[in-house]
Amino acid sequence: MRIDLHTHSTASDGTHRPADLVRLSAEAGLDVVALTDHDSMAGWTEASAAAADFEISVVPGIEISTTTSGAAVHLLGYLLDPSYPPLATELALILQGREGRLAVIVERLNLAGIDITEAEVRRQVGAAPAIGRPHVADVLVAKGVVADRNEAFATWLSWGRPGHVQRYATQTETMIRQVTESGGVAVIAHPFGRGTRQVVDMEGLARFRAAGLVGIEVDHQDHSAADRRTLTEMAQELGLVMTGSSDFHGAGKVDHELGCNLTAQHEYERLLDAAALHAAAAGREVTSVARP
Fold first, then answer.
1. DSSP element (H, E) containing 285
2. How many other CB atoms are found less than 10 A from the CB of residue 162?
3. Taking the CB of residue 95, how many other CB atoms lie within 10 A of it?
4. In the 8-state DSSP scheme, what is residue 141?
5. Residue 127: is its pLDDT beyond 90?
6. 62 and 41 Cβ atoms separated by less than 8 Å
7. CA distance linking residue 260 with residue 219, whole number of Å
8. Fewer CB atoms inside 10 A, N or C side of the chain?
9. pLDDT at 126
10. 14 — phi, psi (to 5°)?
């Protein structure tokens, strides 16, 4: 089986609707794809409906903004129950944080001499419930301020740049527990990518594992060959599932084509087994997804 467990649609900062993402995944030869939009499950229904038209299974997921020791840690949650009250409350706070920082980002960019308005960004966001910096980046690209999203982040939106604004994020261990208690499974996304590396060492992973962490994303475009070897060793020592994925965003992120990294079939089975155990412990019916 060809399995890609990390993709994004227009329900967050991807450039393809959920149904189109599913179609493209089937065309790319995938058997299983997880839809993991940022802090949003809005694309699940459309993606699941589209899966019936293709020979592909869709795993419902989400990429959740969390923080540890001041560093951002992105947590992939699969097969969770978004109605679980503690989880629902935290996700609502995270989305409010996304909404609330937009005006501040625009104000700071204006002060730096950039002609951009909140209305322009909201038109770019469309119906997506999760407003993100990539939406601001896309407006900057459209206005000719930068060439692409990478330049927008490097020049204006990343940490230390004029348009960077901190927002609310849940403590990582708290969110791992909430995903687990809701009947889902938690996997750390790109643990050696961006600013996450500084808090994802053996000690940190052991704490996360004690909180219920099931796996880490080993094969990712942000990881070098050496990173992947190190992460594999860490996962094996702690008994964590090892996933691989594209982190596909459509036109919003280059060199992240669907299926460029894959999750091994036996690791996918381990992930589903853990989800079944967590669902049973939470008193939930196990979500039906493709098994090898």
1. none
2. 16
3. 18
4. H
5. no
6. yes
7. 9
8. C
9. 84
10. -80, 170
**CA nearest 36: which of 26, 27, 28, 47?**
47
Pairing relation of β-strands 71-78 and 185-188? antiparallel
Per DSSP, the three-state class of 113 is coil
CA 292/CA 277 separation, integer angstroms: 18
| pLDDT tens figures, 20-31 | 999 999 999 999
Q: Which tokens is 6 given?
A: 């990390």
Three-state SS at 242 = strand
| Spatial separation of the C-alpha atoms in residues 32 and 229, rounded to whole Å | 25
DSSP letter for 40, please: -
Alpha-carbon torsion angle 85, 66, 43, 164, nearest 10: 130
For a pLDDT cut of 90, what percent of the chain falls above it? 83
Residue type, 12: S
pLDDT at 289: 75
How far apart are the two ends of the chain, measured CA to CA in Å?
A: 7
Report how far residue 102's alpha carbon sits from residue 281's, in angstroms, rounded to the nearest whole number.
39
pLDDT, residue 253, reads 84
